[in-house]
Write a structure and sequence with these properties.
- The structure is a single chain.
- The chain has 21 helices and 22 strands.
- With 625 residues, it is of the alpha+beta class.
- Among the domains are: 61-159, PAS domain (Beta-Lactamase), CATH 3.30.450.20; 184-299, Beta-Lactamase; 422-551, 2-Layer Sandwich (Beta-Lactamase); 571-625, PAS domain (Beta-Lactamase, 2-Layer Sandwich).
- The termini are far apart.
- Residues 162-185 and 621-625 have low confidence and may be disordered.
């Protein structure tokens, strides 16, 4: 009987147990799915953080823009290169960095990227914050989101100026503030954050320059108005209004009150507001000081990281990261195209797989420098592709820091310079041919640095000045050269040189020089001015030849002619010469004496035609002549 009851009880409970088991299994599946999604999210975020760190630690400027040429990201290298902090350029047009004459070319390249057309590596000129110009090699690539849609353009810029000119020392400017003893807000005008001073009725008394600049308003349209009326009511925020109205009567200051609001002039921003009252000497409340900090960029950090990750993935340059053991941890599309390995094949492998065996000793030294926080800039070397062919590359290697500032690895940007190497080789061959030609003609060449007064010269140049051994570059410049010029020629040569530099014209002259053995020789010099991108003369290139033998021959010829003239002048017979047009070219003294009665002198006969001066001779026979 009991067995039957137990059986009935078990049979009635069976459906409940099945429901319970199904519920447990569903919970287990849901938990497993959530755990998997969480792990995937963590991996995605870690990957974004790594790629963002690569961009921020790169030695090349990496800037992303929209298709309207608005700057959306700006790494530390860009800040160093252009001189603008990110806050000053984000949201600004790229044309801020572009010369007016390059505007159409920039827009055309952006349009090519937008329409999926390839944009080759190109050279252009950009403008720094201080107005100076810099020549860059730029790679422009499309940025795609996770779905493959175009969302912008990345530009990676590298300084390729043929000669690094002396960097001007950054001039520190001390902002002097006229502090009014009886007016406290005057000390606030130079503050870098926007500051407002409000009257006790919450009308704006004044504001600093940062406020007017950031919110794009003027003192005339702001001062004397209620804060809630500024910018068509953009500050009429209920929670802010309540806080401000309690500051003076209750002395309730507030700090870091966060507001996200759509501002009329600058769009949607997230601000941190802090306010407190100002009191007079008696402790009576007078005014309110309101400080405003724009933290929109900080709030948008996650979007920025995603953008930077897209920049890395979209770049045509190979961008690779590795840990401190030399193991590859990230691999972009540019690396896949340059080296032939997919990301799956490369990540987790030692980076030495890209290095030819004879150059493997480079890697330990690079890693050691990274561990010490050093960067490796523009190192030209050779690397191996997957098919084991070699490729010439230019490398920049920089340390990667984690959120705590610790070095965790290195980012490496590799650019294919095969075409540039070929051009350099062709240039070397052309240079060798030029040197052979100059040597065969016994002509020396020189290159004068007008900034530092140093020069590069050929041995033939030094030989023209009496030196059989080359003089070190640091020991020779224009001032040294001018001391070798003969004192009687020195002022003329120096004057011509100064005119050539100031008027940007060629420098051509012949002069005497004094050799170290005190012998006097003649040289002929030709020089041409070369200018920097800003138009200033920076170099003069030229040639030099020893013309002493030519000058001696000219002097000997002159002396021979003088001796001949003296002989002819001394003879007692009349002697004249005419050219093929029968114009007198010479008359000796005796001929002049004979013709004097005819009112003919040497001065008025030279260059004149015989037939014009003596027309009666026309038609006579040769014997009568």
């Amino acid at each position: 009987m009991d067995d039957e009851k137990n059986k009935e009880t078990n049979d009635s409970a069976a459906p409940a147990r099945e429901e319970e088991r199904a519920l447990v299994e569903e919970v287990a599946r849901l938990t497993a799915r959530l755990q998997a999604e969480s792990a995937a999210h963590q991996r995605t975020e870690a990957g974004k953080f790594l790629l963002s760190s690569i961009v921020e630690s790169s030695e090349d400027s990496i800037v992303s823009i929209t298709f309207d040429a608005v700057i959306t990201s700006w790494n530390k290298a860009a800040e160093r290169l252009y001189g603008y902090p990110a806050a000053e350029v984000l949201g600004q047009p790229l044309m801020k960095l572009t010369l007016p004459e390059d505007l159409q070319e920039v827009l055309a390249r952006i349009d090519n990227v937008k329409h999926h057309q390839a944009v080759e590596l190109f050279t252009t000129t950009r403008v720094r914050k201080d107005g100076s110009q810099i020549c860059l090699s730029v790679q422009m690539s499309p940025i795609k989101d996770a779905k493959g849609s175009l969302i912008g353009i990345s530009t990676i810029g590298r300084d390729i100026s043929a000669r690094i000119f002396a960097e001007e020392m950054v001039r520190a400017t001390v902002l002097q503030t006229q502090v009014a003893l009886d007016y406290a807000e005057a000390t606030l005008r130079t503050a870098p954050v926007p500051l407002l001073v409000l009257e006790d009725d919450l009308r704006m008394h004044t504001a600093n320059e940062a406020f007017y600049k950031n919110f794009q308003v003027t003192p005339d349209e702001s001062e004397g108005r209620l804060i809630y009326e500024l910018g068509n009511g953009q500050w009429n925020i209920p929670n802010l209004r309540k806080l401000l109205e309690e500051i003076l009567p209750k002395n309730n200051p507030f700090k870091n009150f966060e507001v996200t609001h759509e501002f009329e002039s600058i769009g949607r921003r997230t601000m941190l507001l802090s306010a407190q009252r100002m009191e007079n000497e008696a402790g009576q409340p007078l005014r309110i000081v309101l400080a405003i900090e724009d933290i929109t960029a900080r709030k948008g950090d996650e979007d920025t990281r995603a953008t930077l990750a897209a920049v890395v993935e979209s770049s045509d340059d190979a961008i690779i990261s590795k840990n401190l053991d030399g193991i590859i941890t990230s691999w972009n599309g540019g690396a896949e195209r340059l080296f032939g390995y997919s990301a799956r094949e490369a990540i987790g492998q030692p980076v030495v797989m890209l290095i030819p065996p004879e150059l493997e000793k480079e890697e330990p030294g690079i890693l050691e420098r990274i561990r010490h926080g050093e960067s490796l800039g523009h190192h030209e070397t050779v690397r191996c592709r997957k098919d084991r062919t070699l490729v010439d590359v230019s490398l920049t290697v920089s340390p990667i820091f984690d959120a705590h500032g610790q070095i965790v690895g290195a980012s490496k940007v590799a650019r294919d310079i095969t075409d540039r190497r070929r051009a350099q080789e062709a240039l070397r061959e052309s240079q060798a041919a030029l040197e052979f030609t100059l040597e065969a003609a016994r002509i020396g060449d020189w290159d004068l640095d007008l900034i530092h007064d140093t020069s590069r010269r050929s041995l033939r140049h030094d030989q023209c000045l009496g030196y059989n051994e080359p003089i070190p570059e640091k020991d020779w410049g224009f001032e040294v050269f001018i001391q070798h010029v003969h004192p009687e020629d020195r002022a003329r040569v120096e004057r011509d040189f100064r005119e050539a530099v100031s008027e940007l014209k060629d420098w051509d002259f012949e002069c005497r020089v004094i050799w170290p053995d005190e012998s006097i020789h003649w040289i002929a010099v030709h020089g041409s001015i070369y200018r920097a991108v800003d138009g200033k003369p920076v170099r003069m290139l030229g040639i030099i030849a020893n013309i002493t033998e030519r000058k001696q021959a000219e002097q000997a010829l002159l002396e021979s002619r003088q001796r001949t003239t003296n002989i002819i002048e001394s003879i007692t017979d009349a002697f004249t010469t005419v050219d093929k047009e029968w114009r007198y070219t010479f008359l000796n003294q005796r001929a002049e004496e004979i013709l004097r009665p005819l009112q003919k002198s040497r001065e008025n006969l030279l260059g004149k035609s015989l037939w014009e001066e003596f027309p009666d001779l026309i038609g006579r026979g040769n014997e009568e002549d």
